[in-house]
Design goal:
This protein is mainly β. It has a domain of about 200 residues: outer membrane lipoprotein receptor (LolB), chain A, CATH 2.50.20. It contains four helices and 15 strands. The strands form two sheets. The chain has a 13-stranded antiparallel β-sheet with strand order 8-7-6-5-4-3-15-14-13-12-11-10-9. A hairpin with a 2-residue loop joins β13 and β14. The longest helix is centred in the N-terminal third of the chain and has 11 residues. The relative contact order is 0.22.
Length: about 300
Amino acid sequence: MRTPRCRSKVTILLPYHAAGVIVDVAMKALPLLLFSSLVCARLLAAEPADPPKELSLPEIMAEYLKAQGGSSYIESIETLRLEGTITQDGLEIDFVQVKKQPDLMRMTFDLGPMELIMGYNGETAWQTTRQRLQAKELTGAAKKELVSTAAMFNELYQPHNPRIKRRYLGQDEFEGTPVYLIEVTLEDGAVHRYSIDQESFLDRRLEYTQLADGVEHTLEQRYYDIRPLDKLQLPHRVESYRDGERVSVVSIDTIQVDTGVYLPYFDPPGGIEGRDELPVKVSREPLTPASGSTITGSSVLAGATLPAN
């Protein structure tokens, strides 16, 4: 008898505009926790004697939501706060991420001598460090990808959104577990493919493609180490793959639901450089490195040249 295993989905990859240079987070810097599909169902005590019957897409989606606390419960969640570590290229980077409905997000990364902060307040995407007086605005592709990951849950939690198309592709296996394959086409034409556990109706894997320097790559996220929190079952380990090779691991230490956070928390600290006036009171000088300084050493940001203040 096989012991069922529970998996779920947590983040997505997005680009990061580090010190004036857009760096692909997933491959070169930080795979951001986009905590967009969190919940999964209870573990079943044993494998069913008969193979699961073929379900229609509406039936699969109904079980998917039911297994995760139901749509009403999911919609009632206002905020999520996560703390953990990203491991990539031998480096370990501590992070904190906070999300608030409908699509507000702020995340902080401890890079040793400085803290990198990125966020989205529903209008402006931005990045800064603790040492800067004002934030830099993210635009273009950097903003688009950051905003695309700001929603609390993924597109499967939006069954009535007419701008998203879903298609059932049939049954398959992932790591020896039978799964349903659901293809989702987003408004911008991007295609995501989800592997959903046939027993627990949990996300096991997300697959999609991404262009980098004219080359198309296959990206995956796999979800492990599920732990209960209220009605939720939340993944605490997320492995990211590129063309079949593991590139990063996200380990989540703590998750808090509905801790409460003020809306200004998601605004760019000090406003946007070049757009907003400086704060009236400035208690210290900025501690940013001199213009033209280059990050050296084993950091994933090594080689990035810092812009003028």
